[in-house]
Structure formats: structure tokens, C-alpha cells
Amino acid sequence: MHISEGILSGQVLSAGAVIAVAGTGIGLKKIDYDKIVHVAILASAFFVASLIHINIGPASVHLILNGILGLLLGFAAIPAILTALLLQSIFFQFGGLTALGVNVVIMAVPAVLVHYLFLPLLGKSSKLNFTAGFLAGFFSILFSSLLLGVALWFTDKNFFETSLAIIMTYIPVMIIEGVITGFCVTFLLKVYPEIIPKKL
Amino acid sequence: MNNKKNIIRLKNITFSYPGSDICTLDTLDLEINKGDRLGMMAPNGSGKTTLLHTIMGLCKPDSGVIEIFGKRLKQEKDFTPIRSKIGLLFQDSDDQLFCPTVLEDVAFGPLNLGFSQQDAIDIAKTTLEKLGIQGVEKNVTHRMSGGQKRLIALAAVLAMEPEVLLLDEPTAGLDNRVREKLINILNGLDITYLVISHDFDFIKAVTDKIYSMESGKILTDEKIHIHRHEHIHKHGKRPHVHK
Amino acid sequence: MIEEKFASGQSFIHKLDPKTRIVAVIILSFAAALCDIFFVAVLYFIISTVLIVMARLNRKDVIERIKPVFWFLLMIWILIPITFDGQILYQFSWLKISGTGVILCCKITIKSITILLLFTSLVATMSIASLGNGLHKLYVPDKLIFLLLMSYRYIAVIEDEYKKLLRAAKFRGFRPKTNLHSYKTFAYLAGMLFVRASFRAQRVHQAMLCRGFNQKFHSLDIYQANRFNFIFLIGISAAGLSLVILEKIWI
After folding, report:
1. List of chains touching C (3+ CB pairs within 8 A)
2. Over 50: is that where the pLDDT of C174 sits?
3. Does C229 contact A at CB distance below 8 Å?
4. What is the CATH number of the domain that holds A16?
5. Do B149 and B73 share a structural domain?
6. What residues of chain A lie within 8 A of the CB of C146, using their CB?
């Protein structure tokens, strides 16, 4: 989920950059040297997972999975997502430099939010695990698309209808990410529960 | 026997992974003396890698004594200084080569030892040269072939000038050419080492003594006899243990 | 998949210090992004194409690279003219094409392509290792640079693991479709990637400890300073500044 270059106003770009820098700072502080490799390679996995394409009827969408990354990493997800987005713009030219801050906010703030909202629900019962995973996936995309809409709307009030249209088109993605994240969380709790942080 | 300088001594080491009641290492004893060229053959899951990780202090045993260079090691901080003197070659070179370029990878150890940037680069270059891998310093590590990666990983370990080398399945996934090269390199080194491998011919070519491991214990020469049969046998060409 | 196609050239741009190129791309990209007049945006576009020519990149590869942005621009051209208010250019019954919207689309198109070309000519022309080196010299925290280098290093390894997993699933008859079973399978594959990544991280961390990692990152400085860096940076800053002034006077 990216916003492209050349659209947003200076204020929105700088606000995005400031929030991204602050968030990255907090995130880096929370990563100690024993965990830094873990965060780095999970960021690689996040990058690779975003290349997985899922069919919806005749069309296909790629996975985003910022919800899972948020559950696993909390605040550390911010520098991880910054890293992945920077590598994406280097290799694929999805987004460039000026919108990087805003894009980090769009992807990473929801990741941190779902960490604090839904992580406490995990590990209680298998049914609840799927539900919590679903909600984490669903809401991470919902929050992301709302942030994207807000960024456009703050740039120009005339973007209101465009923003609404974009949020609407993301509804199927929210559902798919919810389902995938739900299954993914139950899978992780079954095969390698240590990967999911115990406490907030 | 006792006039040999003892480098590594493990006594009564017991280790089991958390949540498992199987002892991966079971009252294990091992001695490595200066100048030893030991080989070890053992089936998968017999605790070979755990053994190497215990020597390096990456796995902390539940009980037993680890003595390296005559010092008893208990905590993480005891192991930090000895890690630069014992070089461990990992089974998967991708785990060991984590820097973007070959030169940076080989220079990583020397830089950590406190060498200046220029000295670290020089050490890295000479080490690569010694192993016969020139002209790849600026290459991106992950794009090298499997064989090259193994040799670069070995260079990265040797650049720290360790006194002992521990090699975990060094020939896994290598073609014959690189395997021959590795045999020549090891035979040309004046260093104590322990090689763990499935590759009987390789172990035979580079070591003087062969041990084996079974259910968390080490079986030494006296107790076992590993050899290859020239006749047809139900075990085929695979080396095996006679009791 | 992960190729540094443009990193291995021999042009003037390739020889510049990474630090210089990073500063230059920041100045020019932000100046271009904030510009509000179509004519000035065209001037930025010209600068970016000059840089692409100077970097002597394969033209086909460059076009291939900026292709994804055309899809995005297509969406913009469909959406904005009909949803924007302002002076009306055309009207078919209920459908109003806004003139302001069309002008905005033109500006967005030229600006987004410009920024991508700047990034391609100045940043995509260096290896990730050089990028890390340049960021280090610009006082970016070591931890962040380490994340970038390490994450880049293991993308190819993790991608290989993904391909193996997918192949294994396909050998067992898995055909991706629009159904719950397919989604579940992909969820498990993605989950497995995270599990493998975590195991891999443990081993890499152990390997770092074995080689004396003491919580300090060292960066090898491989670029020599040369005076062109300074001249280039002065030139870029002057160009950016004069365009900003031009725009201010225009208004």
C-alpha cells in the first residue's frame, strides 16, 4: 500500500517524515543488540511475503502483512517497515524518496496499533487466536487505508471523494489480509509459539 | 600422552533443549590437544552441532565442566575472549556471511578484534589470497556460488587467526573440485581442528583420528572401528560402526 | 529478482561518493515535490533526464523500471478529473471533467516521473553496501544501517526458501484459486517464512558472536574523496535553489 510521489503537499510530506523519524527512533531504541538480527531478517521475510500474490476471482492482489509484522515486533516494526520500503523503492521503484516518510506512517502506525490492540488476545483459545489474527489483519489494512485517505485529504480537500473511493477498493484486501493473518497466527502459535512476544 | 598441551576439555557435559526430556548431550567427555586433527562421524540428530555450540558457549550445558586453554568457562562473558581463538565454520555459509561484500565479511572479525581499518583490509586480502580466492573482494556475497561461499566463510574464520578450528559438515553440498581444494587447504594448515562430517573419504583425508557420537556420548578410537569395506555388504558404501 | 542492475556502471555519476549522491537526491527530490508550477516542474524533469543520460543507463531498463508508476498514473487520470471540483472542462450529462483536475494530473504525472528518475540516476546507481556507507557518513544511526544491510542480505535467501516451499506445495497438487483452502495454504507459507527467518536470525546472531561481535558496527570506507563531489553538489544545490527562487518570483 503506497502513495506515489508528486501528489502530496509539502506539509503532509514533512508531517509524515517527522512522524516516521520519531517512530523509527523509538523503534531503534527498543531493539537491543541481541534482537537486531531477528528484526532485520523478519523485515526480509516481510519483503518477500509482499511478493506473494493471491487470487481474487480473475484479479490478484499481493499480500501486505503489516499486521503480522506489527504483532511480532511492536514498535520495532517501524524501522523494519522503513527498511523494507526503502529496499522496495531501490529494487522496484514502488514509491520514491519524498513520500517515504508518509508511506512508513501509513504502513507502520497501524502495525504498532494492532500489536497493542490484539496481541493480548492471543494464546487464550484456538478460536480466539484466529479471531484476534483476523482482526489484526483486517484493522491494519483499514487503518492504513484511512491514513492514506487522510494524507490525501489534508493535501487538498478536493481529494475527499478520491480518498473514499480508495478506501472502498481496499475492503476486499482487508478481508483477505484478515483471513490470511488469522491462519498465519494460528500456524505460528502451533509450530513456533516462541516467535510471538509474550508480554507487551 | 600428558605432555601434550590440552586446549579444550569437556567433562560430564549434559545438555537437553528446553521442553525436551531427551539428553542431546549425555555426560559427554571430550579432549582436544594442541596439534590434534580429529574427525567425527555421526548420524543426523546425534548432537554434533550442539556439541560444537557448547564449546563456543552458544549452548549453555545443564551440567558439566568446560575448560578451554586451561580456564574453566561458565558465563557468557567467559566465552567472549575465547571465541576469537576458536574458529567455528557453520554448516550453512549463508548464516556466517552476513555482510554485503566479501571483503567486509572477511574483515568483520579483525575489525572486532580491534585492528585498524587498513590492517583489517590487509588481513582480509591476504587470507583470501592464501585460500586461492582472489579478485572477488568487492563482489556481493550472496551472489557467489555455494563452493565460493564456503571458502569465503573459511577465510572469514581464519582471518581471526584462531588456534583451533571446528568445522561443521564442511563438504555438505560442495562439488568435487571445491572439496579437493578444501582437503588441500586443511592439510596445509598448521592448526588444531575438529571436523564433523558424513563424508568418510573427506574425514579420512584430513584427520589422524576418527571419533563417533552416539546417543549424546562420544565414542573414541578404542571403542569403535570405522572403516570402509571393499566387498559387497548390506550397508553398501556408507561407512558404519561395528560394535 | 533482486538485481542491482544499474549499480555497476562506470559513468561520472557512478564514481561520485555515495554521500554526495544521497544529499543531491534529497535536495532535488524535495524541491521537485514541492514545486507547484507546471513549467518549473518541466525544468526539474529536464534535470532528472540529464542525470539519467549522465549515468549512461540502458534506456530500456529505465523505462521498464518506471513502468509500475504508469499504472498508478492511469488510475489518477481516471479518478481525479471526474471527482475534482473547479472549472469544468467538459460535461457529459452527470459526468463532469474538471479542468483544475486535469492540470493537477499533468503536474502529478511530471513530478512523480521526475522524482523516480532522480532516485534511479543517483541512488539506484550504487550498491546497497555503498548506500550503507554513505548513510553512515551522513550520521544515520548504525542500527538502522545494519537493519538495511542485513535485511537486504537475507532477502534472496528467504526468497529461495519461499520458492522451495511453493514448489513443494505445487508438487503435492496445490493450485492457487479463489477459495479458503488456497488462502490457508498461502497463510501457512507466509507463516513458515517468518519461522524460517527467525531460526535463520538465531544462527546468524550466533555466527556474529563467534566472530567477536561486540555491539559495534564497523563500516569499511571504500570511496576516495575527489573534488568532483564538491563541484557536483554545488551545481545541484545551485540548480535547486535557482528553481525555487524562480518559482517564488513567478508567483
Report:
1. A, B
2. yes
3. no
4. 1.10.1760.20
5. no
6. 36, 40
Which region among A160-174, B131-145, B216-230, C230-244 has the lowest average model confidence (pLDDT)?
B216-230
CATH number at residue B35: 3.40.50.300
Q: What is the pLDDT of residues A132-152, one digit of tens each?
A: 999 999 999 999 999 999 999
Q: Is C89 on the interface with B (CB under 8 A)?
A: no
The pLDDT, as a whole number, for residue B243 is 44
**Residue B7 sits in which domain range?**
1-85+162-243
Q: What is the Cα–Cα distance from B9 to B15, expressed in whole angstroms? A: 16
Asked whether residue B103 falls in the same domain as residue B80, the answer is: no
Higher pLDDT, B22 or B125: B125
Q: Which of B104, B145, B164 to mutate to test the interface with C (most CBs of C within 10 A)?
A: B104
Domain total of chain A: 1
Give me the pLDDT at residue C9, please.
82
**B132 and B60 in a common domain:** no
CA Rg, chain A, in Å? 16
Query: Among A90, A100, A103, A179, which would you mutate to test the C interface (most chain C Cβ atoms within 10 Å of its Cβ)?
Result: A90
- Across B70-80, average pLDDT: 89
CA separation for the pair A188, B175 (Å, rounded): 36
Asked if residue A3 is part of any domain, the answer here is no
| A/C interface, count of CB pairs below 8 Å | 224
Say yes or no for a CB contact (<8 Å) between C4 and B111. no
Instruction: Name all chains with 3 or more CB-CB pairs below 8 Å to chain A.
Output: C
pLDDT at residue number C83: 78
Same domain, B21 and B76: yes
Contact A162 C123 (CB under 8 A): no
Among A3, A5, A159, the strongest candidate for a mutation testing the C interface, having the largest count of C CBs within 10 A, is A5
Min Cα separation C161/chain B (Å): 12
Closest CB from A48, A98, A179 relative to C30: A98
- pTM here is 0.89
Question: What ipTM describes this predicted complex?
Answer: 0.95
Both B140 and B29 in a single domain?
A: no
Region C98-120 average pLDDT: 91
C217 touches chain A (CB under 8 A): no
What are the respective helix, strand and coil percentages of chain C, to the nearest 5?
Answer: 75, 5, 25
Give pLDDT tens digits for C29-54: 999 999 989 999 999 999 999 999 99
- Domain residues for the domain of A80 are 10-195
pLDDT above 70 coverage of chain C, percent: 97
Boundaries of every domain in chain C: 12-126+223-250, 135-210
Residues of B in contact with C207 (CB under 8 A): 88, 90, 95-96, 98
**Final residue of a domain: which of B118, B146, B161?**
B161
Reduced 3-state DSSP string for chain A: CCCCCCCCCHHHHHHHHHHHHHHHHHHHHHCCCCCHHHHHHHHHHHHHHCCCEEEECCEEEECCCHHHHHHHHHHHHHHHHHHHHHHHHHHCCCCCCCCHHHHHHHHHHHHHHHHHHHHHHCCCCHHHHHHHHHHHHHHHHHHHHHHHHHHHHHHCHHHHHHHHHHHHHCHHHHHHHHHHHHHHHHHHHHHCHHHCCCCC
The alpha-carbon gap from A6 to the nearest alpha carbon of chain C, in Å, equals 4
Q: Looking at the structure, tell me whether residues B127 and B50 fall in a common domain.
A: no
Domain count of chain B? Answer: 2
Judged against a pLDDT cut of 50, whether residue C82 lies above it is answered with: yes
User: Which of B120, B136, B161 represents a domain boundary (last residue)?
Assistant: B161
**Residue of chain C minimizing CA distance to A29:** C143
